[in-house]
Write a structure and sequence with these properties.
By secondary structure, this protein is mainly alpha-helical. Helices cover about 55% and strands about 10% of the residues. The protein is built from 5 helices and 2 strands, in the order βαααααβ. It has a two-stranded antiparallel ribbon. The N and C termini lie close together (about 10 Å).
């Protein structure tokens, strides 16, 4: 399963979800879906914008965990 550690990077950068939402141009609802691991997909342009604003690499927020199961399994 792919786990999203957006909360960790937000905390490290001392940035709120509201601020990231405004900087990236994504709605709070969609950012919340992503942050809570409920997203089915993400556009590369959105991922790029998030990484740019958080000054991080994709691997800092997307973590592959082969042991973790999806909620629907």
């Amino acid at each position: 399963m792919i786990r999203i550690d957006l909360d960790v990077m937000l905390a490290r950068r001392k940035m709120s979800v509201t601020e990231l939402s405004a900087r990236v141009g994504i709605t709070m609802a969609n950012l919340s879906i992503l942050k809570n691991g409920k997203a089915k997909a993400i556009r590369f342009s959105t991922l790029e914008a998030i990484c740019r604003e958080l000054n991080c690499q994709v691997g800092d927020i997307l973590i592959y965990d082969p042991e973790e199961k999806h909620a629907d399994e």
